[in-house]
Amino acid sequence: MMSFYFIDDDKNITNILKLIVNTRGLGVCCGSAENAAEALADLPVMRPDIVLVDFLMPEMDGISFIKQAKKILPDAAYIMLSQVASKDMIASAYEAGVEFFIQKPINSVEVESIIRKVSDGLSMKRMVQQMHNIFTPDTNKSSVSKSANEQQIEANLRTILTRLGIIGDTGSKDIITIVKYMCMHPESVDTMTVSELCSKFCDNPKSMEQRIRRTAFNGLVNLAHLGLDDYSNEIFVDYSSTLYNFEQVRKEMDCIRQKTVRHGNLKIRHFLTSLAFRCQNAQ
After folding, report:
1. Tens digit of pLDDT for each residue in 32-55?
2. Which phi and psi angles does 166 have, rounded to 5°?
3. Which of 51, 85, 213, 224 is the most exposed place for a label (fewest CB within 10 A)?
4. Can you tell me the distance from the alpha carbon of 27 to that of 19, in angstroms, rounded to the nearest whole number?
5. Please, are residues 79 and 100 in contact by the beta-carbon 8 Å criterion?
6. Which residues does the record list as 4-aspartylphosphate (modified residue) (predicted)?
7. What are the distances in angstroms from CA 222 to CA 12, 95, 131?
8. Which of 91, 100, 228, 226 lies closest to 163, judged by CA?
9. Is the pTM value of this prediction over 0.70?
């Protein structure tokens, strides 16, 4: 169960957020503060999973707070509350480490939806960091249930690749093949390289790996274009810091805007592992 910490100089906002978290079964409220200084003192003790912080606060704004807070709790997730819709501010907040924005005035349905997304994303990140715990094999499954599970995994995977705009790329078939294998044989893939995975399905694993890399990179480029159009785009927010590294997506955005000639990079093993986790744990 996720624990939450709230920072807002308006007590009414804090009370509303606590009520939403408690009544909707989203987690537990471990503390709150009216200013950033008080919150920074609480974080090492409270160690919340998710921090909701107001953008406009006296003495220290929300972005400055998050930059300091991430030094204390780098693995926590941060959600920003804001009435401001400036694109530059939103970009700065994402760079500082914000996962999502909640616009004021607060809407309980929106708050619940965003918190659930952030909770799911945080769970995924933690699982990816601990590779040996990502998949729990069930040796009691029958061949029929395994087949049904494999079909569901492929359906989930195709949905994600479609959202990334790469389902029609040549390498998408290779991605589907590899990720399905990772999901169905979790006990044997933890230490395998991408090349070793590819070698199970073709005589030229290097060629297969290159197709996967090109397709995955096309997904990164598509996300970068989405971010340029709208930082709050659901697909951009959902995948830019989970399937990919947000800083690398930002670098690709700068390349598209011709601010730099260097493209963003991606780690194929992380991309495939994150895909496998998403497909196994999709609702």
Report:
1. 999 999 999 999 988 999 999 999
2. -125, 10
3. 85
4. 11
5. yes
6. 54
7. 40, 19, 27
8. 226
9. no
Q: What is the pLDDT of residues 251-273, one digit of tens each?
A: 999 999 999 999 999 999 999 99
Give yes or no for a cis peptide into 105 (omega within 30° of 0): yes
**Cβ(118)–Cβ(77) below 8 Å:** yes
Instruction: Scan for tokens 């769970």, then name that residue.
Output: 123
How far apart are the C-alpha atoms of 91 and 70, rounded to whole Å? 17
Which amino acid is present at 144? V
**176: Cα within 13 Å, side-chain hemisphere:** 21
d(CA 283, CA 273) in angstroms, rounded, equals 18
Tokens of 124: 């995924």
Measured over the CA atoms of residue 160, residue 164, residue 169 and residue 174, the dihedral's sign is: negative
What's the rounded Cα separation, in Å, for the pair 184 and 37?
A: 48
Residue 99 neighbours by CB under 8 Å, 6+ apart:
77, 78, 79, 118, 121, 122, 237, 241
Write a three-state SS string for 196-217: HHHCCCCCCHHHHHHHHHHHHH
Rounded Cα gap, residues 268 and 161, in angstroms = 15
Task: Tell me the per-residue pLDDT of 82-91, one tens digit each, with 9 for 90 and over.
Answer: 887 677 788 8
